[in-house]
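User: Batch of two.

Assistant: Item 1 of 2:
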Amino acid sequence: MRLNKSEVIAKVRSLVERVIEDTDIFLVDIEAHGTVNNAYIRVFVDTPNRITLDQCVYVSRELKKYLDMDNSIGNYTLEVSSPGGRKRRY
């Protein structure tokens, strides 16, 4: 079964906004690929002064907690990265 990308992105966006509230971290982009049984979610975050690895780890851990509690996405792999971690797709 195909993954409804727009629904997943909307759900992840709302959860990321909750995680980064009251921090200087901001959301740059979200990508979702795969199937319902094997979703791949990439979240790109940044700060005004370059995001650190510790900040990415914080967002990843907190977001995973929310995703696991919500359980509407099913099985997923989560990657949280800086926008510089984005790879070009050809």
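Item 2 of 2:
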Amino acid sequence: MTIILNVLGTGCAKCNKLAAVTEEAAKQMGIDYEIKKITDITEIMAFDVMMTPALAIGDEVKVSGRVPSIDELKTLLS
């Protein structure tokens, strides 16, 4: 089953960093994933996110307003 990892943000440096570390964590874990970068503010607001960057696994927001470490992301993905 493919896990959908939604990176929410406007494309800023922190948003790009979040996408990169999320991808690295998923690769290290060997999971089947797809990263979707959501940059449209209306779509971001639909997730009830007030601060970006944010990461939603499926429809559930797990991190908002910061870039977590790879180890923290692995915990969130497991």
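The beta strands are 3-8, 33-38, 54-57, 60-64.
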